Every structure is written in structure tokens, then in C-alpha cells.
Amino acid sequence: MPWSHHSHSGQFCGHATNTLEEVVQTAVHKGMTTLCLTEHIARAEEDFYPEEAEHHTQASLAKLYDSFYHEARRLQKAYASQITIFVGFEAEWIREGSLTIIQELLATYPVDLFVGSVHHVHTIPIDYDHDFYYKARDVAGGSDERIFEDYFDAQLAMLQALKPPVVGHFDLIRLKSDEPDRSFKTWPGVWRKIVRNLEFAASYGGVLELNSSSLRKGMKECYPQVEVMETYHSMDGRFTLSDDSHGVDQVCLNYGKVADCVRRAGMTELWRLVPSGDDGSAFDSRFPTVRWSATKLVDMTMKD
């Protein structure tokens, strides 16, 4: 009975594969009980990825999200007897203007949730490839330590502005770094910023996703690292589960390894979205259709 609160499809994302319905069908086939469809939002043209710049404008990306939203709602109804589907988006925090884009999207579409993510530092992508990462690192001061500090400062700005219900891949910054499995605690300045961000997320009830995509990219632990999980857990912070899939071959991938990280962090339960009429903790007036509900880890089937 696994879940995912963060997913993509090739139908609506240029760096993914498969149709949205194929992703849903695969989730059903694998026994998933909750699936959140969270496609990327439109961005200003100055923030396009290389593959988007050749084929899109900001208006066409906005139209793509509109098409996604309506298709996702269709699938939500069509597969209601087989899986609980929620519809939202992944909000990307790049610059101050990102806030306006996200606010307009929330005003236009009655979504069930959104994932708040940071993929850029100093407006430069930090997870696209090493060349972009090194460029951003140079702007930050030339070291992983400096760009990590700047990343978590950008993340705090995102958290404060948006208070996202789901905090996406909390420590994504380590993906292209020289030592992606390094303990954050070896850099006291970085660790202080991490704790600060966790404290803020806990203060408004933000739920951190345990994102398995880091494992398929060669890292030893999910996003976030176990030491971050332990710290947020000590603040009574809550966690959910995401595969951040970009195609059917990644649905539910490496969930057994995520479960190992959860146990190492001393956690015994995870949280999932349920319809607001079901039992669960109070959520957020912005999202009246859903609540969070706890599930004991022993009651979950999580395997690779």
C-alpha cells in the first residue's frame, strides 16, 4: 500500500517519459493506494531549461499545465475505484517573481496540494547537469560548502513565502556536489541553516517528502539524509513518501531502501493525504479537499 505525493509524466514534462494515464495504470498495477499528480509549473522564459527553450514559450508552458490539470482530474474520476488520486503541481522557487507565478496558479486552479521545491541557486539550475552546478557554485563562492549555504537560504525564502504543504527533496543540492553522501554536520554553518529551515517547516506543519529519486541517481540515502530525518522527527515533524517518478519504470522504485532509512531514523509512521471526509489531522484552509492521516510503518508494504 505505498503512496507517492510527487510525480511527473512525459506527456507534460519534457524530461520525463510515458503518458500520465500510463503512470496511473502502473501505480495501480503496483498496488499504490495514493498518487499525487504534481506536474511542473510554467516559468519565465529566462528560467527555461535547454530542452524547453527550443519548443516553448511561457504561454505554451502555461497551456501545457492547463491541459495537465484537466487530464489529471479526468483520471482522478476514471480510476477512483482503484486508487486515490490528488492533483497539484511542483512549485519551483527561482527568484522573487516566482511568488507571483505560483500565487496566480493557486488562484486559477483549485488544487489539492503542491510541492515546494528549489532547483536553482542564484537563478542557475543545480540539478540539471554538472556544468550548471559548477557555474552556480562559482557564483556562490567556489565551494560546495558555500553553495549549500546559499541553497538553504533560498529554501528558507521559499518556505516563508509559500508554506508548502509538501516540502520537496529537501537536500537536493547534494546531487551534483563533489561528495553527495557527505554529512551536513561536518559544515557547522550549513547545518545551522538546515536546522533553521526545519524549525520553520515544523512551525507551520510542513510535511517533508522522503523522496526516493536520489537512490536511483546513485546516492546512499533518500532525500533528505537520515541525519536530517532524525532532526525533523525530534521536532515532531511529519514525513510522507514520494518516488518523484519521471516515467513508469520509476514508480515505487527503491521504496524498500527508503524504508531502511526511515527505520534508521527511528521513525515508526509516515503520513499520507486522504479526502477531507476521512479521519486524519487538520490540514490547511487553502486545501479543503484533503487531510493528513498517519500510517504505521509496520502496516505498509514497501519493497524495491
TrEMBL record:
Residue intervals of the PHP domain: 5-213
Keyword Hydrolase: yes
Keywords: Amino-acid biosynthesis, Histidine biosynthesis, Hydrolase
Chemical reaction(s) catalysed: L-histidinol phosphate + H2O = L-histidinol + phosphate
Domain of life the protein comes from: Eukaryota
One GO BP: L-histidine biosynthetic process
Pathway where it operates: Amino-acid biosynthesis; L-histidine biosynthesis; L-histidine from 5-phospho-alpha-D-ribose 1-diphosphate: step 8/9
UniProt-listed CDD domains: PHP_HisPPase_Hisj_like (cd12110)
EC number: 3.1.3.15
Keyword Cytoplasm: no
Enzyme class, UniProt record, top EC level: hydrolase
A single GO molecular function term of this UniProt record: histidinol-phosphatase activity
GO CC annotation terms, alphabetical: cytoplasm
Family to which this protein belongs: Belongs to the PHP hydrolase family. HisK subfamily.
Protein known as: Histidinol-phosphatase
High-level lineage: Eukaryota, Fungi, Dikarya, Ascomycota, Pezizomycotina
